[in-house]
Write a structure and sequence with these properties.
Order of helices and strands: HEEEE
Number of helices: 1
Strand order of the largest sheet: 3-2-1-4
Shape: elongated
Strand content: 25-35%
Distance between the termini: 58 Å
């Protein structure tokens, strides 16, 4: 009886891919160029990115509307100003 139970569990495990990668061999997953698809805005805001610490040349922006994904354009840099219109 115990052997039958173990064989049954092994079959179920194989059917659901237990321990199987299913990917392309040992190639690492490259996530450096992808954005998180489930990012949701928690504020109604605008973030403007600048090229350097003088804050004189805009190079990009993020626009957030409550509950939606950010609308991004241009480049993101460490030099930014965030204008928050309100919390969601």
């Amino acid at each position: 009886m115990r052997t039958l139970l173990m064989v049954g569990l092994a079959v179920v495990g194989l059917q659901f891919g237990c321990g199987v990668d299913g990917g392309a061999g040992d190639a690492p997953l490259d996530v450096s160029s992808s954005e998180a698809p489930l990012v949701r805005c928690l504020t109604d805001s605008l973030t403007v990115y600048y090229s350097d610490a003088t804050y004189s040349t805009e190079v990009g922006s993020d626009r957030c509307f409550c509950g939606s994904t950010p609308i991004r354009s241009g480049s993101r840099t460490p030099y930014f100003v965030e204008y928050i219109n309100g919390e969601c």
